[in-house]
Design brief:
204 residues, alpha/beta, 5-stranded mixed β-sheet, two-stranded parallel ribbon
Length: 204
């Protein structure tokens, strides 16, 4: 029996917010600064969730939205052969959140596929539909357009970064702006960015 046992815990460093195309650059930076180990996690009330659990909650919001808005579910399944976020190559990910082939993470296209499946439907349309940029036909399914189903659990502090726009002096949190423009107070994107944590490994 060892005289002492090293206990591992996680210490929150910051709320890193949106990565954009800087994901790989940030991961290299954190590998250098926290060689003992780091992770991205999500606050959920008094708990901290790993990515699989956070993405399940993220997906649940899409499931609830499509279930409660059958006209949109009917539209996307009759229009799209599949959906994509950052690139048409996103379709290769299928239902697997771990398959990330572009510099930007793309999760909501996968969440949409899974939510469609969970609603007992499938894509029957004749074209790929982008579900990202404002002004596109699929923008109504972007995470800044989807209300979060448990809004009281979204963190509402002001200490959230946006690494993609740190050098812009008139920076504003775009996901809140886009959501408010659509009359949506609390969105899936807001949950994902606001509750996100960078944590470093600590020993004690």
């Amino acid at each position: 029996m060892p005289e002492s046992v090293i206990k591992i815990s996680w210490e929150t460093v910051e709320r890193p917010g949106y990565f954009g195309k800087k994901r790989d650059e940030l991961e290299d930076f954190w590998n250098f600064n926290y060689p003992q180990g780091w992770r991205i996690a999500w606050q959920w009330g008094e708990q901290v969730l790993t990515r699989p659990l956070a993405l399940q909650i993220y997906e649940d919001a899409y499931f609830e939205f499509l279930k409660n808005n059958p006209e949109i579910l009917n539209w996307i399944t009759s229009t799209a052969s599949d959906v994509y976020d950052t690139s048409p190559s996103n379709v290769k990910s299928g239902l697997n959140y771990d398959e990330q082939e572009t510099p930007n993470n793309h999760f909501h296209d996968i969440a949409i596929r899974r939510a469609v499946l969970r609603n007992g439907r499938k894509f029957l349309g004749d074209r790929l539909v982008e579900v990202r940029k404002p002004g596109t036909e699929g923008a109504r399914l972007s995470p800044y357009s989807i209300p979060f189903h448990l809004p009281n659990l979204i963190y509402q502090g002001e200490d959230i970064k946006d690494y993609n726009y740190l050098k812009v002096s008139n920076h504003r949190i775009w996901w809140k702006t886009l959501g408010r423009e659509r009359g949506i107070e609390h969105t899936v994107e807001e949950f994902y960015q606001h509750n996100k944590l960078l944590q470093k490994m600590a020993f004690g």
